[in-house]
Structure formats: structure tokens, C-alpha cells
Amino acid sequence: MSEAPSTGPSAGPNTGSNPPSEPRPIRLRDALHKARIEAADRTGVVVDLRDAEVARLEILNEELDPLFAQVPDNIDLFERGISNGETPRLWLDVVAHVVMGRDKRIYRFLQDTRYGRIVLAESRDVPAIVDAVTDYVARRMVEREHALAPAEPPEPKAVEERPRRRRGGFWIFVLGFLLGAAVLFGFALLSSLKSL
User: 101 in a domain, yes or no?
Assistant: First the structure.
């Protein structure tokens, strides 16, 4: 028995995995499908780690609820929230956040400054991080109070009045001019008498 030759993009030798009546899928499509499955397996592990980080940050966020309940409503310095990105973060305000360390068990409380990022606290224990955040919130509230406090006006200094200068400056100038002219006239007269 002879098979009829097939034509088209799915033509190719029958490897036995596909019956001769079905068109064989394009190899690139198979490779893409296989690569996507492998990537999903790898990212499954990464997603599990990221979910564990987010869960730990949520635990810390719940522990911080009583602290932020004490902050007066008129103080709008703090905006807490968990950002889900490549690195999940628990943001406390615009410049401070908590991330998980490399081993995913250590909380790192960080602050961004104009000189770079600094570590304010690092611990495996939630209460230690809560204490560090409490100190940070208190410092930020005091900074706000100082910034909003009206500046005390400087005490007026007694200004010493200098004695007024007399207008003798003009007459001194005239006297100096006349003396200079007299000296020049005398020098010219002396030099003309020597040449005679």
C-alpha cells in the first residue's frame, strides 16, 4: 500500500506520534507550548514564595492596626498598603516600607533617604518590627509638629544710631584739590627756573 503524498505546511515524515490522517502540528508551536509549561512550573515556585511573603506582610499589617488606630485623623502622613510586585512591600508612608529578607523569614524595615536606602530595623520577630515602626511613627509626628509650628518672631534688636557724618567731606576735597594744584604749580615753576 502506498500513501498519498501530503502537501502543505503540515507535511513531513510521519514519526508515529500522530496518525497519518491528522495534520502534524508545527514544531515551533510545540516548542512554545513546552516552554510555556516549563515556565509555569518554575513560576509556580516563585508565586508560592511571593504568596508566602505577602502573607507574612499581611500578618505584620494586622499587628500594626492598633498603632495606626491611635494616629489622629488630621495627620495624613501615613498611607499603609501592601504592593504586589516583583518584591512585595508593606508601605507605611512615602519613604518607609517593610520587605522580607532574602531568606523570606526576616522582616526588613527600610527608609529611602536622599543618600540612599537605610535599614531602620531587621528582625524575625513581628513585635520587634512593630516597636521599630512605632518609634518611626512617633518621630515622623514630632517632625510634622515642628514643621507646622509657627516660627517665633525674632526679638527686635536695639539699633545703635551712628553719629551722622558731617558734610565736611566736600570741603576736604576742595582743600586737597587746591593743595595738589599748588604743589604742581610750585614744581612747574621750580623746573622752569632751573632750565634758565
Answer: yes
